[in-house]
Design goal:
Strand content: under 5%
Number of helices: 8
Order of helices and strands: HHHHHHHH
Structural class: mainly alpha
Distance between the termini: 69 Å
Largest sheet: none
Low-confidence stretches: none
Helix content: 55-70%
Mean pLDDT: 87
Length: 171
């Protein structure tokens, strides 16, 4: 009996790794699939196989576009290609950051790690260290900007600060 359960589990894992909609059903237990979900999932599967380079999704609000494309798809992508990186964009920075957090939380969840890998504490600690380093660097640039009298130097410092954080304002 136990061997049969293990075989079924392996089959489920294999299905989740090869088909986006199967993965969605495992990550979102209450999910009810519709025809439009299968169409989106087929497009995402083609992207993962390299058959499509671009996808545009035009559907009315509340049809799971964001849940699929900005939350579940990036996590699935990271599961398939853990060495790659993703840039999360949206019409506002706040929305992009929110989806990024949801993806990170999903990737760190026990449900996700049943199928893929564990990001583990090391990656999280590295991310925290990068943020601290950027914060300290920005504080130093702010100090130098405030002390600077030369407009050329201020422009250089502003450019340096924007490379660290594109939305920063120093003036």
């Amino acid at each position: 009996m136990e061997a049969l359960l293990e075989k079924e589990r392996r089959k489920t894992v294999a299905n989740c790794k090869s088909d986006f909609l199967e993965y969605v059903k495992q990550m979102w237990p209450g999910f009810i699939s519709g025809r439009h979900h299968r169409i989106m999932a087929d497009a995402f599967n083609k992207v993962m196989r390299g058959e499509l380079k671009r996808v545009i999704i035009n559907m009315p609000p509340r049809h799971t576009k964001s849940e699929f494309a900005s939350y579940l798809l990036p996590a699935w992508f990271l599961g398939k290609f853990p060495q790659k990186k993703i840039i999360q964009t949206a019409h506002t920075a706040e929305l992009a950051v929110g989806f990024g957090r949801k993806v990170r939380n999903l990737v760190n969840s026990a449900d996700f790690q049943r199928f893929w890998f564990s990001m583990g504490r090391t990656e999280r600690q590295r991310e925290i260290a990068r943020r601290r380093k950027r914060k300290v660097g920005l504080a130093k640039v702010r100090e130098r900007f405030a002390a600077s009298k030369n407009e050329g130097e201020k422009a250089q410092l502003l450019a340096k600060a924007r490379r660290m954080s594109p939305f920063i304002e120093l003036e």
